[in-house]
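Q: Hi! First time asking for a complex rather than a single chain. Here are the components, and I think there are two in total. Is that enough to go on?
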Amino acid sequence: MKREKIDIYKGHIVFTKTKDHFTILENGYVIVKDGKVVDTYTSIPEAYQYVPVTDYGDKFIMPSFNDMHIHAPQFRNRGLCLDINLMDWLFSCTFPEEAKFSNLDYARNVYNILLKGLWKVGNMRSLVYNTIHKDATKLLLNMFLECGLGAYVGKVNMDINAPDYLNEDTEQSLLDTEEILMQYQGISDLVHPIIAPRFVPSCSPKLLCGLGYLAYQYQAPVMSHLSEDIVEMKLVKSMYPQFPNYGSIYNYYGLFGQTPTVMAHCIFSSDEEIELMRKNGVYANHNPTSNCNLGSGMMAVKKFINRGVPVGIGCDVSGGGDISLITVMSYALSVSKMVSLYSNKQLEPLKLSEAFYITTKGGGSFFGKIGSFEPGYEFDALVIEDNYIKFFEYNLYERIQQFIFLGSSENIRERFISGNNIKEPMFLL
Amino acid sequence: MKREKIDIYKGHIVFTKTKDHFTILENGYVIVKDGKVVDTYTSIPEAYQYVPVTDYGDKFIMPSFNDMHIHAPQFRNRGLCLDINLMDWLFSCTFPEEAKFSNLDYARNVYNILLKGLWKVGNMRSLVYNTIHKDATKLLLNMFLECGLGAYVGKVNMDINAPDYLNEDTEQSLLDTEEILMQYQGISDLVHPIIAPRFVPSCSPKLLCGLGYLAYQYQAPVMSHLSEDIVEMKLVKSMYPQFPNYGSIYNYYGLFGQTPTVMAHCIFSSDEEIELMRKNGVYANHNPTSNCNLGSGMMAVKKFINRGVPVGIGCDVSGGGDISLITVMSYALSVSKMVSLYSNKQLEPLKLSEAFYITTKGGGSFFGKIGSFEPGYEFDALVIEDNYIKFFEYNLYERIQQFIFLGSSENIRERFISGNNIKEPMFLL
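A: Yes, that's all I need. Here is the structure of the assembled complex.
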């Protein structure tokens, strides 16, 4: 009989079962069995009296962050080229950088720094775009497997409207994608391949059709970009004038909820597009820092939440600069207040608990039972020491507010994924 | 004959003479005589060959930051109560906290943490609101004098529409203000008193009139809040229906450029109000983090710049959470992009150099020849080590971009004001 591994952690427990409320246990306990949460308690139940307790004292224990959108190969470019709009930014800064990932040594160096960064900021699981390059994508998958962080990693597909050096042969793009699916599907609980067409303007109908078929054949998840930018919207409309909205193009090709799907940005989504997302269970991924940096616009994230579309949040490096989802969370709150104001208060701003929810359980649900401390959830957690408020007295709810608005990765003391305490990645690949 | 003190600093010199361009000297020199910049150089002039050089190697030397708006007594409340609008926020969170400053022990503790914070983030000069309390205001002035940071500190005036515990007797408010002006004017190059009516809704006509007279009599500068929030705008309109705009009320009472004046927020300023500011030389102070946090709105800062209104930037704690003007600067860029988008591109976004300019020379000009390294400017400077980009190669302009979008106070190595290298404040008051 296999012996169960039981851990008990003590601290101020914070999580969001529902989007509307924080669950807060002052000096509470979370009991973890084989990496999964048994439950949270205000005192240790009789049956666990003899299990040793790891006591984090006055620190917080909260679910770790789930990043729904990051481009690994853009990590070197963070903070650069942010005075131009999306399409210019792609062609003048981003595509030239992505081209470098045909060189595996360069790729390894970038991934190395990226993975240390993800660990540092407590993004224990991420949806990660790579470039078109098959070998670099495999390298990134391998490095995730080695370091213990969770991810879906997608080889990007693009066969039209790109510079020559990034324009794929359609057949080869599909073959490379299938090779990665065959090699990496099912080999790990934490690291998976995902299908990642760049976006409609970069993909021929034939490519989209082939990717939809691969998604079906391998029951593989999908991620892409949707309704991000005005110039992009016009381009898509001119390419597919017969379609009622951008999302319906992905839908036509079987890339819009036929398998689990995340669509990033959704700034200019029409009511019909939002309804299609709800019906198909497509995740809307909010990237407020990126959207502000590139001048794209402000997503009405509350509208998606109100209508029952599943919502997560992402740093979208390098449209976004900071990979810390604490920064992105407070930006989301700001943007939602401006959206509310400009809608004449027809749309309420995000509540604090909603911002926390989408950053933990909302996005986490794409990965499984992730982002909460309810029974059966994976114990993905951060231990937080909020040392910026050493001097004054605050109650726990005030400290949570301050963590969201003033906190940073400097406050993170421990990082768990599925019950394992993960140490900083040190690669020797 | 007094011997001159000459210092030479070597590093990558960055500053903005004009708003449209960075001046960048790779491995340059700045020569400082008696605390003032002689000039910047690519090699050391003959006359200075024998002066020892402080070599900061691959680090940047840039003007320090000038914060045009912070409320010292709100420092404890950073990050709290940011899910309500301005007027509710004042009455439920901010006024109760400000009331505590009748207790000088409490006040001293808060100021202590505040001043360490200002030093840490490189805000070498600040415009600081205190509470209504005379003694606490004097304490704050004394603590600024002791620690060597620059400031204008204002005792706040409010005699109507406040809770009883903060409603001043009008005569006493004026007497207290005058006592501070008499005691502190002219005693220091770095620390000065300033007249600080809270805002029109908090001040009776008699109080505004008296403050206007004090400003004239003592030729004292003025700071207040202007056109920040929709509810506030309606309240002001109902109080002064005969005035064409909010600013013209201050103007009527001699508090709008008759002496040097800074007005914060200016989100709902009409064209006429902006023109009055230009004509009177009133500074517009941009507080994008605060404006987003409180859901107030987005100031069209570029409009003020284009029309020739002097512009600075502020953290506005505790409407704003982070006192680092690096954070505020990148927020200003974001907000300006959204304003541009919502104006259908009639207004261009801020350029990077403009954001840097208003944070250094723009706001600095209120304090004197501050915020640039042109000849005759005070050597107010920061030494920056951008260690978040250890691995990759970047040119200097890329590094400046990354500092603005990714930098933090962790990157600051040295802090100068008027040529003096300032150490962390350690108070024994």
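A: DSSP finds 13 helices and 17 strands in chain A. Let me know if you'd like any chain examined more closely.
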